[in-house]
Amino acid sequence: MKRCSFAVVLLLALAASSHAGSGWTALFNGKDLSGWKRNGDEKWVVDGDTILCESTANKYGYLTTEKTYRNFGLRLKFKGEAEGNSGVFVHSRITGIDPEHGPDIEGMQVEVDPGKGKHTGGLYESGGRGWVAMPTAEGESALKGGGEWNDLEVSVQGAHIVTHLNGVKVVDYTDPSPKFTDGVIALQIHTGGGVKMRWKEIEIKEN
User: Fold this and answer.
1) Fewer CB within 10 A of the end CB, N or C, for the chain?
2) What are the tens digits of pLDDT across the range 33-57?
3) CA-based Rg of the chain, rounded to a whole angstrom?
4) Is 157 helix (H, G, I), strand (E, B) or coil?
5) Which domains does the chain have, with CATH numbers?
6) Global pTM exceeds 0.90
């Protein structure tokens, strides 16, 4: 029994060591919102080992990293618990607060929507051109519904952005005229109400 327990401990230690040496760093520590900033009046709380965001004021709301990032890989898990729209922003910045709809943001959004066919993983430039890259047919159908966890991966290398949803490539886009070359990472609550989304295992690997 002791030999078996030692083997289990050793395997766990090796796994942790391998992960630590991979270059990935947790942006969310699973306990509190250290390293993040709330923008707006919407709800952002830690619930268990997840970040729960929920519409309360029916305006835009953003949870942004305190640091800015340029070239990186980002991976996380999300799960929709209502029909409202959300998103993950890269190379972005909060530009102001509007009393009617809440914070204004500019930058590139990776769409996150719990509904099938709503372009999750596609790219939308807020404060600019709107949709710049739509999902492939295969990418459009990669979303898991029914309250299941989804894996989202985003690679940002200069103007080149690639997204994967549940292991399926969704977009591979080189921006001919990027608005910014660095910025914060942000999670979104879309205006209009009805958003309830969970996020966890948010990790970054800078290049």
Assistant:
1) N
2) 999 999 999 999 999 999 999 999 9
3) 18
4) strand
5) 25-206 (2.60.120.560)
6) no
Q: Encoding tokens for residue 151?
A: 């894996």
Structure tokens given for 90: 């890269």
d(CA 131, CA 99): 26
What is the enclosing helix (H) or strand (E) of 44? strand 43-47
Q: Which amino acid is at 145?
A: G
* DSSP characters over 98-144: ETTTEEEEEEEEEEE-SSTTS-TT-EEEETTTEEEEPPPHHHHT---
CA 113 – CA 78 distance, rounded (Å): 10
- CA angle at residue 40 from 39 to 45, to 5 degrees? 75
**Residues in a beta bridge with 106:** 93
pLDDT surpassing 60 at residue 19: no
Q: What are residue 86's phi and psi, to 5 degrees?
A: -140, -165
CA atoms of 114 and 105, how far apart (whole Å): 22
Quick one: CA torsion of 187, 192, 195, 201, rounded to 10 degrees?
0
Confidence check: pLDDT of 165 > 60: yes
pLDDT band per the 50, 70, 90 thresholds, residue 21? low
- Cβ–Cβ under 8 Å, residues 140 and 119: yes
Residue 42 contacts residue 61 (beta carbons within 8 Å): yes
